[in-house]
């Protein structure tokens, strides 16, 4: 099954430029070269004059010869820059914004490893040191190799069962977030060959989308109700809002756990340590192996020590810090997303 370049991507390939000499300055040419060499492309989404993590990653990792050589074995690197001080013409800005939307970029830096058609095979968000970049490049190279083999296989003559199995392998190889956009033809064909969703791929996608929706609704609700302000001024009211939110029907365990973590943070800020056991245990029971679940487990283990340390403090009063330590910023809800 041959998958054409998406019209959106094809339009973008026509002229987004602006990279250092060591990197490609033309995505269209980079993908053409990748196709000729049976390679992929690595798209770096960066803010070269304002994003500290981007600047550090470029200087400390991506500019190193050993890292560039590692990337070049399987990918042609392309820089997509979103500066704040550097001047760009309106056409370039528009193309970059469309590219950003197409790949679902929500933070910088982001590395998108893709095939010669622009279809992602591996995505990395946030700063990575040299070793991490090379590890991700290796993972991406393996995913690209598998994706290319399956794409070639699907272009041949297969039975329905063989096509179904190959499609399942393909969609399990690539990033989930890219399937509905970049692998839509494969998903649609699989839906016909597997109408009952025995592979579970559509159910997994639907759950992921529901989780993202519920997380956005949680953040919006807490912002609208000014929970971050109430946490300082009327903590009991803030806790009441959180408890009420937990009673909503259909909440996924990840979202419930996030709300319980908010309760734990607020109770810690108020030094109401005798009330911590319940939300900690509830959060652990939901998803014990998640990052939040493990964090709550550690807090629960240290609860006697925490009670001893904070039990005599006034609400909002912090225990003394070790020499040289910096107090963490309190944050109840994430900031509102930037307006598009």
Q: Could you explain how this protein is built, in words?
A:
The structure is a single chain. This protein is an alpha+beta fold and 340 residues long. Helix content is 57%, strand content 7%. It has 16 helices and four strands. Strands 2-1-3-4 form a four-stranded mixed β-sheet. Helix 14 (277-286) runs antiparallel to helix 15. The model is unreliable at 1-21 and 330-335 (pLDDT under 50).
Strand order, biggest sheet? 2-1-3-4
Please identify the structural class as seen in this structure: alpha+beta
How many strands?
A: 4
**Gyration radius, in Å:** 24 Å
Individual helix count: 16
The largest β sheet comes out as: 4 strands, mixed
Series of H and E elements? HHEHHEHEEHHHHHHHHHHH
Low-confidence spans: pLDDT under 50, at least 5 residues? 1-21, 330-335
The average pLDDT score comes to 88
Percent strand equals 5-15%
Oligomer: single chain
**Shape from CA axes?**
globular
Describe, in short, the structure shown.
With 340 residues, the chain is of the alpha+beta class. Helix content is 57%, strand content 7%.
């Amino acid at each position: 099954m041959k998958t054409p370049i998406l019209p959106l991507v094809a339009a973008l390939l026509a002229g987004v430029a602006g990279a250092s000499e060591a990197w490609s300055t033309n995505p269209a040419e980079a993908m053409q070269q990748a196709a000729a060499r049976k390679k992929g492309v690595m798209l770096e989404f960066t803010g070269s004059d304002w994003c500290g993590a981007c600047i550090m990653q470029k200087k400390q990792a991506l500019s190193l010869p050993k890292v560039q050589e590692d990337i070049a074995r399987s990918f042609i690197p392309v820089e997509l820059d979103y500066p704040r001080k550097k001047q760009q013409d309106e056409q370039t800005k528009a193309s970059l914004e469309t590219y950003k939307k197409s790949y679902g970029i929500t933070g910088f830096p982001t590395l998108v490893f893709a095939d010669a058609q622009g279809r992602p095979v591996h995505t990395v968000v946030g700063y990575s040191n040299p070793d991490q970049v090379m590890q991700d490049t290796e993972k991406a190279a393996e995913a690209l190799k598998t994706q290319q083999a399956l794409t070639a296989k699907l272009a041949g003559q297969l039975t329905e069962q063989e096509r179904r199995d190959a499609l399942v392998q393909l969609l399990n190889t690539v990033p989930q977030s890219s399937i509905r956009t970049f692998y839509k033809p494969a998903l649609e064909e699989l839906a016909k060959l597997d109408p009952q969703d025995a592979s579970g791929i559509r159910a997994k996608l639907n759950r992921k989308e529901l989780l993202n929706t519920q997380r956005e609704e949680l953040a919006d609700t807490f912002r609208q109700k000014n929970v971050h302000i109430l946490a300082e001024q009327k903590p009991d009211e803030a806790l009441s809002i959180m408890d009420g939110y937990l009673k909503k029907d259909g909440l996924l365990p990840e979202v419930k756990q996030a709300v319980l973590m908010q309760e734990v943070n607020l109770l810690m800020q108020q030094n109401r340590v005798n009330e911590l056991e319940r939300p900690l245990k509830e959060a652990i029971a939901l998803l014990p192996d998640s990052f939040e679940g493990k964090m709550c487990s550690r807090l629960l283990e240290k609860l006697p020590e925490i009670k001893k340390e904070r039990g005599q403090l006034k609400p909002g009063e912090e225990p003394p810090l070790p020499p040289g330590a910096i107090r963490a910023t309190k944050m109840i809800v994430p900031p509102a997303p930037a307006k598009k």
